[in-house]
Amino acid sequence: MDTSNKVILISENSRIATPIRHALNRQGLEIESEYLNLHALAVMRKGIARTGRTTFIRNELVRYIRERGFPAAVIMDAQADLGFPQENDPGMIKLLKTILISYIIFSKGKDFGKVRGAFLLLTKGKAFGERYGMAADPHRILDQLMTENPAINGYIDELKNDRNRFNDLFYIKLFDSEVASDAVTEFVDAFVKGATVWRAGGEAGTSASEAPAAGEDCRDAGQDRI
Fold first, then answer.
1. 108, 99 in Cβ contact below 8 A?
2. Which end of the chain is more exposed for a tag (fewer CB within 10 A), N or C?
3. Using H for helix, E for strand and C for coil, what is the string for 87-140?
């Protein structure tokens, strides 16, 4: 499965959209503007209000990959309000978990070939990285992933026990999006370059955050709770 020249941007921080776009344009990449169920948070909230689940987001990701290939990267708010009651999504990371679990499922199937996902998680300060231990070790995000499907939980456990496989599957960096616009552009530019090298096999993958101080079709995976 090919990698497209599109980047999925999921963020309600409109200030950083332009500097991110500038960085992507340097690398010949574009922000995806179609597939609203995959990147427009307002549309996602409407879908969740109607269904109570995130399944439609994963189905949209499946459709996107089959029609366009894997995105060159996913740049997203690490914490996103999807409209769930606080007790159902206390850390507002259900969207992040939905997408990561989808990639894990894809990696165990045969339909998509070699699966690799580059993620830039947009934070507000250091609280997110410290709360989930991801500032020092993005591998810790696996501690937050669990579904109602034993087989999928088994896939997650395999990655917990095999850091090299995790690093081969995911390239995850955290970035404090509250910095100046020019710093956003420079960091995103460096992130894309790093992801390109990683995808070509030249970088070890997700080893630690670098933020500055300032398949199987998901629809067949069961009704997993995340």
1. no
2. N
3. HHCCCCCHHHHHHHHHHHHHHHCCCCCCCCEEEEEEECCCHHHHHCCCCCCHHH
Return the residue matching tokens 């591998």: 139
Angular region, 177: left φ>0, alpha ψ -120 to 50, beta rest:
alpha
Q: At 123, list the tokens.
A: 């934070």
Phi, psi of 35 (to 5 degrees): 55, 60
Are 39 and 20 contacting, i.e. CB atoms less than 8 angstroms apart? no
All structural domains of the chain, each given as residue ranges with its CATH number in brackets, are 6-220 (3.40.50)
Report the Cα–Cα distance between both ends of the chain, in Å, rounded. 27
d(CA 126, CA 192): 22
Q: Which residue matches tokens 């934070």?
A: 123
The amino acid present at 139, given as its one-letter code, is H
DSSP line for 141-199:
GGGG---S-HHHHHHHHHHHT-HHHHHHHEEEEEEETTS-HHHHHHHHHHHHHHHHHHH
- Model confidence pLDDT, tens digit, residues 96-145: 999 999 999 999 988 777 889 999 999 999 999 999 999 889 999 999 99
pTM score of the predicted model: 0.89
Apex CA 219: angle with CA 173 and CA 165, to 5°? 35
Token look-up 């937050």 returns 144
